[in-house]
Write a structure and sequence with these properties.
It is built from eight helices and 20 strands. The protein has 358 residues and is of the alpha+beta class. The protein has a six-stranded mixed sheet with strand order 6-7-8-3-9-10, with helices on both faces. Helix 2 crosses helix 3, helix 2 runs parallel beside helix 4 and helix 3 packs across helix 4. It is elongated. The two termini are 23 Å apart.
């Protein structure tokens, strides 16, 4: 790591008899936007609170700019946190909310006023100083919460699902604004979400969590196109997970699955005849051919339309459901039609099965 802003070393945390963080290691570069992505209960919020100093780990260490802050209280760490529920003081106006921490630090009135004015301009809310939180929209309240965190000029900003309470259109707008703001300021962002689309759109790197363990850490492209295991492939982008066995024929490697065959690229993972084989294939890479073609037989189960994509559910001979997706609102196939499923070998990513230890 060339310029580590934050280093987490073997962070462990237990609540009662449940270990919620199981030896977390992570280096975060200065100015990086990294997202902790996972479902509820995976440990991501606990980890963020430990970084902030709101909770303490049972073992392990936290280094901030090379300094061990493991046992430091929150006010001694150069970090700030933004919560999903904004946590604004309802009896204070915007200027008082944003400048609150500076008053606690006994900054001068003139210094506080300038910092508040400058920070509100950063979040595109100049002139809002005298308004109360109740007079603001959800998106405006979230910007004020971000301004209140930024006014301290933290080295690391921690954001716990900050856009979760916003409607879809506003959330997408705020994603763009947050990313733009982060790049402009050069502050390290550690962002929590369970929304994989949000993570893919905003992050420099993504750490996918499950049961207190990082399943995979990588760029959005790594996570989407080269998932390490079945969990990552399915959680990020809902890839189809096809588990069968290997057939090696005339030098080519095939997946035997659901009464059919499909060629796979197994150069990076040695395989032998009859061995278990699990591949992940994104829905957009599933080809639907006539039933006379060689491949994997299937029957069209249903079609649905969402977000500009047609989702075609396919019933396989072994009972699995495979999803193919297409741009547009309709497709010539109808429920009950027989098809052959196929995909290019390069689009079949060999992954660890879900029950294998990552």
């Amino acid at each position: 790591m060339g310029d580590a802003m934050l280093q987490l070393n073997q962070i462990r945390k237990r609540f009662g008899d449940k270990e919620v963080l199981c030896g977390i290691d992570l280096d975060v570069e200065r100015g990086e936007f990294i997202t902790l992505l996972g479902s509820s209960g995976c440990g991501k919020t606990t980890l963020l609170r430990i970084i902030a100093g709101l909770d303490f780990c049972d073992s392990g260490s936290i280094l901030l700019e090379g300094q061990d802050v493991t046992d430091f209280p929150p006010e001694k760490r150069n970090v700030n946190m933004v919560f999903q529920n904004y946590a604004l003081f309802p009896h204070m106006n915007v200027a008082e909310n944003v400048g609150y921490s500076l008053r606690l630090k006994h900054r001068s009135r003139k210094e506080i006023e300038k910092a508040v004015t400058d920070t509100l301009a950063l979040v595109q809310l100049p002139g809002y100083e005298s308004r109360r939180p109740s007079e603001l929209s959800g998106g405006q309240r979230q910007r004020i919460a971000i301004a209140r965190a930024l006014v301290n000029e933290p080295g690391v900003l921690l954001l716990d699902e900050p856009l979760g309470a916003l409607d879809l259109q506003l959330r997408r707008q705020m994603q763009i604004e947050l990313k733009r703001l982060q790049k402009r300021l050069g502050i390290t962002f550690i962002y929590i979400t369970h929304d994989q689309e949000e993570a893919l759109n905003m992050s420099d790197r993504i750490a996918v969590m499950k049961n207190g363990i990082f399943q995979q850490i990588g760029t959005p492209s790594d996570i989407y196109d080269r998932p390490k295991n079945a969990y990552v492939a399915h959680f990020v982008g809902s890839a189809n997970i096809l588990s069968g066995t290997v057939l090696v024929k005339q030098g080519a490697v095939y997946l035997q699955y659901a009464g059919g065959l499909a060629a796979v690229d197994a150069e990076k993972k040695p395989v032998k005849n009859g061995a278990p084989l699990t591949v992940a294939v994104r829905s957009e890479y599933i080809d639907l051919l006539s039933p006379e073609e060689t491949g994997i037989p299937a029957v069209v189960k249903e079609k649905s339309f969402s977000a500009g994509m047609l989702r075609i559910a396919l019933q396989m001979e072994n009972g699995d459901e495979v999803i193919a997706s297409r741009h547009g609102i309709d497709y010539h196939l109808a429920p009950g039609d027989k098809v052959t499923v196929l995909f290019s070998p390069e689009h079949a990513v060999l992954v660890e099965a879900e029950d294998e230890k990552p």
